């Protein structure tokens, strides 16, 4: 899965949770700063990202993520650790 | 219309014991109620400690109803109610005249009611066995059944009300009881709160990252969070003139209360402690008191980084120069966060503080985070003329209740 | 003593999404009850329910993010918006002066708490939804409404089953009378969900053949959902801002039956006592009443106890016209009492009392002659109305409303 696809999927998750237009989420945006996401939304995003990419990461890892680039990097790193490659269709079902 | 309202009895079931003296002595001695969770398997959680009520048999306290047909919170609540009535010298309330019981009310608070009934429902649902879900779900789960069960147990026929305003519910219940008595709708009200330990509540706070791994350290620089608990507390409230007429022992009077709503966020308080400050100010105004008249504050003090910081800030705003010299302690350092029971238990603490001139400590304090007097690690003798009980809840329900000595 | 007036109302019900729409639909004998589509009826014999369908919250509330808000709260947000607009409380005014909220609800959302638990159990606690947890507490909807609409006044939640809505009105009136608030939205909200549907069915409360209030053939109620709020205000400050007054809350009373619905004598006396206390608080006598709105919903014992209890309390005035709106609306639990109050305002406006849809005959010795199947117009403008609601746990709550002089037709 390409970095662009990962970023796009994460933007979709953020959009679902925070009601933001994905087109208006900047590639380098910070969550609490640029996107004004509150603590509850951040927790929810962490859960949905973990389920969408089947990362199996402990909760604490998501607390350290403050920006979209950091989240993308986390997903990429974790997927390469666990030998990534989850069919896109499965992602769609995991997060509805 | 009744003027002054007195606290004449209290009963409680807590993670460090049950009954007035056992719990009060335990609080003064700094006894800890934290232990590995026993009521469900915490293997999949990253924390494993809770403040459960252990080894308490509610059955001897439940004399009319069938304990097997009551949810856990209701069992604890009935036990606390009977203890409170005995403490008030009113153990034979249910033998009183029909008319007397029509003038008696029950007001209870809770956060989740009987969540174990939802767990039972879900276990069957997930097992594909909805046929096994019976009449008990609707009979036990709705939270108003807690107040109803107390009333059924005691044959009470007056106002019976449930105020589920989460972690501030005990204070809301006492506030409502205060108003019922002052307006003459009742002559006696059992007021308090109850909540049962459950995997749902534990999972919820765990999901918010709010649970501390070993112990609760309110107001400490190194505090890591709250510890979920359970319990029940009931206070007997009646008009002061009536209490004196029957020779009852009066712990304290309820001097007034204040409620406020942050209208800010579902799980986070207003960033400047705005709602908390407004509730304190409203309570002081209601009681005709100034902040400097307050001798002791029983804090909400959950032990989370955010709550304790904002609560300290709010107290500083309201008390100004008097803040640093007004002792404030959190018993959640010992019994954890008992949810809807918390502020009812803390109301009991305030009543006893006024009556006995002693205040419980904030335990587990190694380095205070702020310059307030958190009564670190040891109980203290203190002339408590006025005690303030503060409680804050999800959804921004804030409540402050003031207790005052009747000797002045 | 401070007086409490009603200056606005908001309704979101299976029959209509406004107080006027609700009153018109009730008087036209429309039924809200239809097959459930909101959830599959796994293991439950199909029964009609009062489901709000379609429900498009964004059509009422605009594009603000609703993801953190569950169904119960969404129903409430809509009713609250309507009530605030109807009472003329703009956002600017709410920022300047505090408006609060007292909400009656049985569960808030049993579905949300159950979903939270199921996901935690099935996927593990790390995958439970934090937003669901925030909505699992029973005061969640009141909190959501306060945030959404900027309601910084006193905020409380009361839970009393079918009596929650009236109890919330009583609490709000008491807070205003005591000077603790000047303006409070008060009422109730409850959603239809599988958990409560199954629960009521297993408890034998859902009717299978006849869910008509007071009907001798009745065998239980039909479940429903919705939200309704009234704006209660201290009379002087309402007048000062030029608010239109829809009614005055004259008084209320409460009582509890600790012996269970099958103990008829105990149950009837609790109902009678609640009504008696309400009349006493309102300083009116039974013969002063013009119309009654009762909470009968088809329950075998409940309807009987209510009728006999009201009859006992109104000795001499048992012939007053009776609205039993659950014949059309179904039983919306926490929202019911608020629906009753909002509908009564409609009767104050045009003098029309909805009939009890589907009523064929009442049981022998039925004490309330004013219970009829047909809608009718009152001979004279109604001035005083009595509302009563009882919950299955034994609570009874009664409220007296008075129509303002200029509103009477």
* Parts with pLDDT < 50 across at least 5 consecutive residues of chain A: 86-96
Quickly count the helices of chain C: 14
Tell me the Rg of chain A in angstroms: 12 Å
Span between N and C termini of chain A? 20 Å
Count the beta strands of chain A.
0
Number of domains of chain C: 2
Q: In percent, how much strand structure appears in the residues of chain C?
A: 15-25%
CATH superfamily descriptor of chain A: ACP-like
Q: What is the 3D shape of chain A?
A: globular
CATH C-level name of the largest domain in chain C: Alpha Beta
Q: Helicity range of the residues of chain C?
A: 25-40%
Point out poorly predicted stretches of chain C: none
What descriptive keywords fit this protein?
heterotrimer; B: 408 residues; alpha/beta; Peroxisomal Thiolase, Chain A, domain 1; 11-stranded mixed β-sheet; 13 helices; 19% strand; C: 409 residues; 10-stranded mixed β-sheet; two-stranded antiparallel ribbon; 14 strands; 36% helix
How are the secondary structure elements laid out?
The complex is a heterotrimer of chains A (96), B (408) and C (409).
Chain A: H1 3-18, H2 39-53, H3 59-63, H4 68-81, H5 88-94
Chain B: E1 5-14, E2 17-18, H1 20-28, E3 35-36, E4 49-50, H2 72-87, H3 98-102, E5 104-109, H4 115-126, H5 136-140, H6 144-154, E6 160-163, H7 169-182, E7 188-195, H8 199-207, E8 231-239, H9 240-245, E9 252-261, H10 274-287, E10 296-298, H11 305-319, E11 328-329, H12 332-335, H13 342-356, E12 358-359, E13 380-381, E14 386-393, E15 397-404
Parallel strand pairs in B: 5-6, 5-7, 10-11, 10-14
Antiparallel strand pairs in B: 1-2, 1-8, 1-9, 3-4, 7-8, 9-15, 12-13, 14-15
Chain C: E1 4-12, H1 19-27, E2 33-34, E3 49-50, H2 57-61, H3 71-87, H4 91-96, E4 100-104, H5 110-123, H6 130-134, H7 140-149, E5 155-158, H8 164-177, E6 183-190, H9 194-202, E7 226-234, H10 235-240, E8 247-256, H11 264-282, E9 291-293, H12 300-313, E10 322-323, H13 326-329, H14 336-350, E11 352-353, E12 376-377, E13 384-390, E14 395-402
Parallel strand pairs in C: 4-5, 4-6, 9-10, 9-13
Antiparallel strand pairs in C: 1-7, 1-8, 2-3, 6-7, 8-14, 11-12, 13-14
């Amino acid at each position: 899965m390409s970095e662009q696809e990962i970023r796009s999927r994460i933007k979709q998750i953020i959009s679902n949770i925070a009601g933001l237009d994905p087109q208006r989420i900047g590639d380098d945006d910070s969550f609490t700063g640029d996107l004004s996401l509150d603590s509850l939304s951040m927790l929810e995003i962490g859960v949905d990202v973990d389920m969408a990419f089947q990362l199996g990461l402990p909760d604490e890892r998501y607390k350290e993520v403050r920006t979209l680039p950091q989240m993308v990097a986390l997903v990429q790193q974790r997927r390469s650790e666990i030998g990534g490659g989850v069919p896109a269709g499965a992602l769609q079902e995991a997060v509805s | 219309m009744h003027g002054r309202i007195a606290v004449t009895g209290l009963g409680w079931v807590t993670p460090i014991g049950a009954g007035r003296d056992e719990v009060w002595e335990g609080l003064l001695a700094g006894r800890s109620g934290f232990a590995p969770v026993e009521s469900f398997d915490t293997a999949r959680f990253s924390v494993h400690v809770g403040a459960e009520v252990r080894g308490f048999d509610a059955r001897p306290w439940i004399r009319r109803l069938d304990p097997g047909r009551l949810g856990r919170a209701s069992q604890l609540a009935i036990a606390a109610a009977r203890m409170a009535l005995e403490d008030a010298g009113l153990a034979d309330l249910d033998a009183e005249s029909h008319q007397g019981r029509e003038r008696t009310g029950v007001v209870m608070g809770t956060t989740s009611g009987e969540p174990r009934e939802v767990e039972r429902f879900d276990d069957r649902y997930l097992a594909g066995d909805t046929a096994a879900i019976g009449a008990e779900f609707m009979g036990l789960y709705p939270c108003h059944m807690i107040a109803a069960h107390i009333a059924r147990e005691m044959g009470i026929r007056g106002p019976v009300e449930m105020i589920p305003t989460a972690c501030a519910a005990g204070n809301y219940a006492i506030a409502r009881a205060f108003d019922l008595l002052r307006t003459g709708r009742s002559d006696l009200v059992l007021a308090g709160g109850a909540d049962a330990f459950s995997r749902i509540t534990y999972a919820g706070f765990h999901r918010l990252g709010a649970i501390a791994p070993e112990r609760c350290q309110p107001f400490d620089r190194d505090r890591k969070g709250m510890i979920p608990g359970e319990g029940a507390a009931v206070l007997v409230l009646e008009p002061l003139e009536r209490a004196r007429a029957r020779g009852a022992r009066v712990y304290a009077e309820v001097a007034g209360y204040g409620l406020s709503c942050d209208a800010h966020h579902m799980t986070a308080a207003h960033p400047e402690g705005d709602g908390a400050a407004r509730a304190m100010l409203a309570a002081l105004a209601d009681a005709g008191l100034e902040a400097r008249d307050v001798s002791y504050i029983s804090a909400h003090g959950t032990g989370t980084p955010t709550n304790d910081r904002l609560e300290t800030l709010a107290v500083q705003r309201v008390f100004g120069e008097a803040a640093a010299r007004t002792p404030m302690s959190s018993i959640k350092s010992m019994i954890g966060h008992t949810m809807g029971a918390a502020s009812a238990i803390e109301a009991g603490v305030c009543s006893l503080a006024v009556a006995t001139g002693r205040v419980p400590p904030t335990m587990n304090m190694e380095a205070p985070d702020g310059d307030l007097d958190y009564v670190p690690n040891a109980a203290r003798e203190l002339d408590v003329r006025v005690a303030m009980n503060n409680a804050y809840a999800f959804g921004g329900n804030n409540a402050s209740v003031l207790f005052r000595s009747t000797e002045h | 003593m401070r007086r409490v007036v009603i200056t606005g109302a908001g309704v979101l019900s299976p029959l209509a999404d406004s107080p006027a729409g609700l009153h018109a639909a009730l008087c036209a004998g429309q039924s809200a009850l239809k097959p459930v589509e909101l959830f599959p009826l796994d293991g439950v014999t199909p029964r009609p329910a009062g489901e709000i369908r379609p429900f498009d919250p964004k059509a009422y509330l605009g594009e603000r993010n609703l993801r953190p808000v569950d169904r119960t709260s969404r129903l409430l947000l809509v009713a609250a918006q309507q009530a605030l607009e109807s009472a003329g409380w703009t956002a600017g005014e709410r920022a300047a002066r505090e408006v609060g909220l007292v909400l009656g609800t049985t569960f808030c959302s049993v579905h949300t708490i159950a979903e939270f638990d199921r996901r935690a159990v099935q996927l593990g606690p790390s995958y439970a939804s934090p937003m669901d947890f925030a909505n699992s507490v029973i005061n969640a909807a009141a909190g959501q409404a306060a945030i959404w609409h900027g309601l910084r006044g006193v905020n409380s939640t009361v839970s009393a089953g079918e009596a929650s809505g009236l109890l919330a009105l009583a609490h709000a009136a008491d807070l205003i009378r005591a000077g603790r608030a000047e303006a409070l939205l008060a009422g109730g909200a409850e959603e239809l969900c599988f958990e409560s549907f199954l629960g009521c069915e297993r408890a034998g409360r859902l009717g299978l053949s006849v869910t008509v209030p007071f009907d001798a053939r009745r065998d239980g109620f039909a479940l429903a959902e919705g939200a309704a709020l009234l704006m209660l205000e201290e009379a002087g400050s309402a007048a000062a801002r030029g608010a239109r007054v829809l009614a005055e809350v004259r008084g209320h009373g409460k009582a509890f039956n600790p012996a269970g619905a099958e103990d008829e004598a105990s149950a009837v006396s609790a109902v009678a006592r609640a009504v008696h206390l309400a009349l006493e608080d309102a300083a009116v006598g039974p013969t002063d009443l013009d119309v009654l709105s009762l909470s009968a919903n088809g329950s075998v014992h409940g309807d009987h106890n209510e009728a006999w209890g009201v009859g006992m309390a109104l000795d001499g005035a048992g012939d007053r016209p009776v609205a039993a709106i659950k014949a059309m609306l179904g039983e919306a639990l926490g929202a019911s009492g608020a629906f009753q109050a909002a509908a009564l305002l409609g009767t104050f406006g045009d003098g029309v009392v909805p009939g009890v849809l589907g009523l064929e005959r009442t049981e022998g010795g039925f004490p309330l002659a004013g219970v009829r199947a047909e809608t009718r117009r009152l001979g004279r403008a109604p001035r005083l109305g009595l509302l009563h609601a009882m919950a299955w746990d034994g609570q009874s709550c009664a409220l007296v409303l008075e129509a303002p002089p200029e509103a009477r037709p």
